[in-house]
């Protein structure tokens, strides 16, 4: 085969992927973008080329709360998820019978459907009928029941904790695999040079797993941004909007209020926000990302 | 062979043949594919509906029924998605409160235009006040099979007697007094739901409407959440909390109507507030005595609108989609559900626990045994006196969502009732203006 036919074959081979991306990513994104610039009244499109949806969004008194909660959700969730995932991954990387067993069962939270997870946690955290508050109260740690999901100051962080419980295991397993692939010679050499545990982690392990760490952070950020079921089923955005985040508010605007234009405008804001954060993160970590794990 | 047939003979013959052919063809039964989406319902209802569908299929063998059940919470996005993709079911069984929006968006069609002579039968068999809950702008868009009414209260009669009372409270001031007296160290006097769940909002609306409040004025297109009637009802919630008669405010914002029922049934609250279904047996502790009653009335209604006795809405209202290709089969299905046998499914069944739409259901002994006071009131013609449909207008979800936020802000002590209501009015009005253009 000559070089020209190789090129055509390559184009042909990637055609299904290109078609899928166009149909399921570019197409809907374009649709949302144009809808955000369209006036929609009673479900009917009434003119393209307006910023009224964005104006309404930024005038909405709930929107600043939504942005603040989304920042806690995405940034807090991602940072804590990756940090706990790294700690658990380090532990799982140790060879022992216990860690071998744990590596298998740590994925259990992934097996449960989102709705089941959300309902179970909602029930367990309920101040009146939940087992967690009851247990804490019986131990004498509190005077009465704690309303984890009814307290506006606590609710976002409780959602983040449940999110970490749900998402962290896969992060831990990916990082565990990366940590186990760190050359033992390098670790041994560092030890012989007098490096303590922290130094070996900081200067040997982290550089070796930098690519995986960056990739898993970006993926976690995207997963968490797209997560809807957990917060919606557990709190419905309450109490008093104190757990209202982008995904739940987009849903509410689009499917409960039928304000499709505003819902689309918020989706665009969400996309820009996510692209900015991910772009910034990749820029900061550009060396490990570009090196593809070889740095 | 030559046959002479005159023009008159030919015309007379063909006319006679045509008349014979027309009269000998039986009325064409409905046939073809029919898709039905049902949203929400109690566990017993979820089982009862497919069982009745089997009877429908037996009576209509030419109809290919494709019945699907979905959670009530997802109905709006499911129906919207179906409408947008032109894959909406022929028959939608959803909530009465949805009708104005579905009709306004052109998703459903008036039944008068396709029901023909079936309409008279529906009017004959269904309680007029309940049938009117399927109306919008003078047209019938939905066939209700039952309604829920708001608002009611259940009281632990053992606790009530211990506190020295012999009847449930009848006014708001009595309610506060009862709740205080019924409160003990380990049992609040009253629990009410204050989550963002639609039912919890409907429960509050029943109280506010009885106080002369409304959440929206259709004539002016203005949101009226800061009307004195609504603010007064918010103040009642705030007062009950300030009296120390309830669980903590934090706790109530995560406690929905099912949770409050559980607290009551476990003797962890002496009273609880709900819809009409609380009058039928719930899971309570062995030997617990309790009674259901209409929610106490305000001492002096403060709202700008006429106070109502109750508000009501059906959550299994049959509607026909405007895109149906088979209106004959759709109407046949609605007509099947308008028959006494189907409407009586609800009569007296404590698990289903809805106010039946069928007139004949009210003469069932089972219903009289379960709800004697209601049957008596129905027979006296007073059951629906002063009752109105639950709020229904284009943008109702946005306004109810703002109301839920206001309720939670008051319950949490974040804002006074007036502040919360003013803020909710402003936010909801912006949503309404955007939606209506």
Overview of the molecule:
The complex is a heterodimer of chains A (295) and B (437). Chain A has a domain at 56-114 and 156-294: MetI-like (MetI-like fold). Helix content of chain A is 74%, strand content 3%. Chain A has helices at residues 3-36, 52-59, 63-92, 97-105, 108-111, 114-125, 131-138, 155-180, 184-192, 197-226, 229-235, 246-256, 260-284, 286-291; strands at 38-41, 44-48. In chain A, strands 1-2 form a two-stranded antiparallel ribbon. In chain A, strand 1 and strand 2 (44-48) form a beta hairpin. In chain A, helix 2 packs across helix 13, helix 3 crosses helix 10 and helix 8 packs across helix 10. The longest helix of chain A is centred in the first third of the chain and has 34 residues, at 3-36. Chain A is flat. Chain A starts with a helix and ends with a helix. Chain B has 437 residues and is an alpha+beta fold. Chain B has 2 domains: 32-144 and 313-385, D-Maltodextrin-Binding Protein, domain 2 (3-Layer(aba) Sandwich); 151-309 and 391-435, 3-Layer(aba) Sandwich (D-Maltodextrin-Binding Protein, domain 2), CATH 3.40.190. Helix content of chain B is 44%, strand content 14%. Chain B is built from 19 helices and 16 strands. Chain B has helices spanning 7-24, 43-59, 75-84, 99-104, 112-115, 118-125, 128-131, 157-162, 172-182, 198-210, 228-242, 249-252, 257-265, 327-337, 340-343, 365-370, 372-379, 396-412, 417-436; strands at residues 32-39, 63-70, 91-94, 135-136, 139-140, 142-144, 146-150, 152-156, 216-217, 222-223, 271-274, 290-294, 310-313, 317-320, 355-356, 387-389. In chain B, strands 2-1-3-14-6 form a 5-stranded mixed beta sheet, with helices on one face. A 4-stranded mixed beta sheet of chain B has the order 15-7-13-16. Chain B has a 3-stranded antiparallel beta sheet with strand order 11-8-12. In chain B, strand 4 and strand 5 (139-140) form a beta hairpin.
């Amino acid at each position: 085969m000559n070089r020209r036919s190789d090129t055509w074959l390559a184009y042909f081979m990637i055609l299904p992927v290109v078609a899928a991306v166009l149909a399921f990513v570019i197409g809907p994104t374009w649709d949302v973008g144009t809808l955000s610039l369209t006036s929609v009244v009673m479900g009917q499109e009434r003119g393209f080329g307006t910023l009224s949806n964005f104006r309404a969004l930024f005038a909405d008194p709930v929107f600043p709360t939504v942005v603040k909660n989304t920042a806690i959700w995405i940034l807090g969730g991602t940072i804590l998820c990756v940090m706990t995932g790294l700690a658990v991954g380090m532990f799982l990387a140790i060879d022992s019978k216990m860690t071998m067993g744990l590596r298998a069962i740590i994925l259990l939270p992934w097996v449960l459907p989102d709705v089941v997870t959300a309902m179970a946690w909602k029930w367990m955290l309920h101040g009146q009928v939940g087992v967690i508050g009851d247990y804490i109260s019986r131990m004498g740690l509190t005077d009465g029941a704690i309303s984890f999901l009814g307290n506006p100051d606590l609710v976002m962080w409780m959602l983040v904790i449940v999110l970490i419980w749900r998402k962290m295991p896969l992060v831990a397993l990916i990082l565990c695999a990366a940590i186990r692939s760190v050359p033992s010679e390098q670790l041994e050499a560092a030890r012989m040079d007098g490096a303590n545990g922290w130094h070996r982690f900081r200067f040997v392990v982290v550089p070796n797993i930098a690519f995986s760490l960056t990739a898993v952070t970006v993926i976690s950020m995207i997963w968490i941004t797209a997560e809807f079921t957990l917060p919606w089923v557990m709190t419905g955005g309450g109490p008093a909007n104190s757990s209202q985040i982008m995904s739940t508010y987009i849903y509410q605007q689009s499917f409960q209020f039928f304000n499709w234009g505003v819902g689309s405008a918020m989706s665009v804001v969400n996309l820009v926000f996510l692209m900015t954060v991910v772009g910034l993160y990749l820029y900061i970590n550009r060396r490990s990302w570009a090196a593809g794990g070889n740095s | 062979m030559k046959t002479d047939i005159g023009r008159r003979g030919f015309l007379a013959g063909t006319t006679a043949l045509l008349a014979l052919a027309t009269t000998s063809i039986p009325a064409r039964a409905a046939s073809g594919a029919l898709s039905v989406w049902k949203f929400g319902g109690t566990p017993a209802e979820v089982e009862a509906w497919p069982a009745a569908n089997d009877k429908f299929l037996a009576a209509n063998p030419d109809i290919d029924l494709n019945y699907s059940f979905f959670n009530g919470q997802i109905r709006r996005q499911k129906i919207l998605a179906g409408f947008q993709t032109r894959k909406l079911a022929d028959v939608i069984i959803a909530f009465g409160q949805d009708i104005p929006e579905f009709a306004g968006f052109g998703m459903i069609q008036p039944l008068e235009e396709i029901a023909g002579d079936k309409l008279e039968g529906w009017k004959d068999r269904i309680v007029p006040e309940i049938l009117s809950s399927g109306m919008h702008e003078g047209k019938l868009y939905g066939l209700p099979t039952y309604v829920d009414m708001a608002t009611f209260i259940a009281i632990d009669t053992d606790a009530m007697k211990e506190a020295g009372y012999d009847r449930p409270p009848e006014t708001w001031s009595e309610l506060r007094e009862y709740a205080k007296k019924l409160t003990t160290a380990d049992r609040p006097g009253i629990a009410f739901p204050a989550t963002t769940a639609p039912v919890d909002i409907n429960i509050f609306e029943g109280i506010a409407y009885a106080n002369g409040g409304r959440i929206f004025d259709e004539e002016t297109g203005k949101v009226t959440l800061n009307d004195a009637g609504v603010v007064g009802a918010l103040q009642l919630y705030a007062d009950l909390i300030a009296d120390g008669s309830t669980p903590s405010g934090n706790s109530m914002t995560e406690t929905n109507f099912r949770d409050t029922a559980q607290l009551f049934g476990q003797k962890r609250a002496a009273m609880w507030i709900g819809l009409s279904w609380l009058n039928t047996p719930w899971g309570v502790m062995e030997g617990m005595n309790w009674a259901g009653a209409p929610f106490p009335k305000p001492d002096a209604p403060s709202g700008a609108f006429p106070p109502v006795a109750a508000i009501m809405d059906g959550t299994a209202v049959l509607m026909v989609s405007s895109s149906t290709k088979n209106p004959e089969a759709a109407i046949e299905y609605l007509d099947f559900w308008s028959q006494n046998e189907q409407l009586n499914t609800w009569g007296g069944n404590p698990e289903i626990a809805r106010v039946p739409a069928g007139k004949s259901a009210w003469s069932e002994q089972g219903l009289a045994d379960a709800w004697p006071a209601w049957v008596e009131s129905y027979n006296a013609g007073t059951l629906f006196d002063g009752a109105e449909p639950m709020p229904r207008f284009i943008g109702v979800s946005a306004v109810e969502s703002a109301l839920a936020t206001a309720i939670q802000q008051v319950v949490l002590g974040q804002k006074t009732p007036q502040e919360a209501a003013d803020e909710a009015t402003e936010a909801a009005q912006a949503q309404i203006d955007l939606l209506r253009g």
